[in-house]
Amino acid sequence: MRRKIMINYVQVLTAAIVLTIVLMTLMTYNMFEERMVDDLRVDARVLATIAGTERAEQIFSELEKELRVTIVAPSGAVIYDNRMEAIRMDSHADRPEIVSAMTHGEGRDIRDSKTLDRSTFYYAMRLESGFVLRVAKESTSIWSVYARAVPLILVLMLAMLAVCALIAERLTQKLLEPVVEMAQHLKEGNEAAVYPEMEPFISMIAHQHEEIIRSANMRVEFTANVSHELKTPLTSISGYAELIESGMAEGEMIGRFAGEIKRNASRLLTLINDTIRLSQMDATSFEVSMESVDLAQIAGQVVSQLQVNAAKMKVSLELETQHAVIEADRQMMEELIYNLCDNAIRYNVRGGSVRVEIRPVRERVMLIVQDTGIGISKENQERVFERFYRVDKSRSKATGGTGLGLAIVKHIAAKHGAQISMDSELGRGTSITVSFDRKGAQMRQEDSDDHI
Ligand code: ADP
User: Fold this and answer.
1) C-beta 391 within 6 A of ligand 1
2) 291-449 CATH fold
């Protein structure tokens, strides 16, 4: 940034300096030219009074060093010149100042000498006799004035460079100071933008910052929860194993304890599986393999898989589907429907029912899992999607729940750009609707990052 500011400064200043010098020189030189011609005019007027007199030639030749005096006949032939032999000179009929003097009475011209560093100024006037008197003087040309200015320009530029470096240093520091300050205070939530142009960046950074902190907190919380959840079955397992080992368990007790060990071990497995699944989906590298899947077919498969469970709980399972093909990840769809149906059975009442409906509605496909179970109170409806949140912990555990089922559902829905809505009433039942976009899932990273 400092370098850029400095380069910009140097460019602007150089342009300004060069332009000023060029213009100033041009103006001064113009004035100088005017003065020069004015002087020549006066000289010519004076000399005109003596032209033709006897002493003229002598006076003209005395002036040789300061002034060149030429007399041209109306034909253009040079009849006198105080610096050259008139006879050797060619016709001056084409010289601009002579042409002008012949026609208008006076004329002027400036011609560069061969060396360019000098110019000759001419002034010519017509005498009463019809002859033309021309006076000329040499002087430095505008080019040599410029050439002389080059070292000055260089010195000025060097000085400017030094000044620029200083200014750029100060300016960048001043410009960056608030930005650095802001960056340091970002953590404290001080989002006031010093420059309005930076507002979008700041809010974006602040938002990301919040996200990172939230995400980190959730990870820590999740790890703590997982460890806690793993502890209970492991404690049970080691307790029963100890009892068997010490010989305190006898006969059929051993069988019962072994059963308990098996039950807790399988609970551990389910917990670990669910945890691994969530972690996989959390990973940024996690890829969803999209394909055309028929939700009705998957729902049918899941329902028949769960028939045994439903029968055990004395719950009837009903399926009402129409073919509905969407772009989705097959395994994830199976998990989503399975988790919803499994919950609808587990949190049901004896003799209750579960209805799974797949209903295409224009561009969308609705998956509705409705049960006549225990229902969820208003205040718990939002929270049940959180990881490890269970309304009734003992019931959840008794039925093999981990508290992660709905978190996985929410995650999968987000990965597919689907919306979840819940309608539930305590004692009457619950209905969960997942609405998919048929065109398939526009994967939305923010949604999938939204840990539950
Ligand atoms: P769990 O493994 O405990 O079932 P979930 O994440 O699937 O975990 O569900 C979280 C909690 O939400 C459950 O513990 C239960 O209290 C409640 N819940 C989920 N589905 C239903 C339902 N269909 N009816 C009543 N309560 C439900």
Assistant:
1) yes
2) Heat Shock Protein 90 (3.30.565)
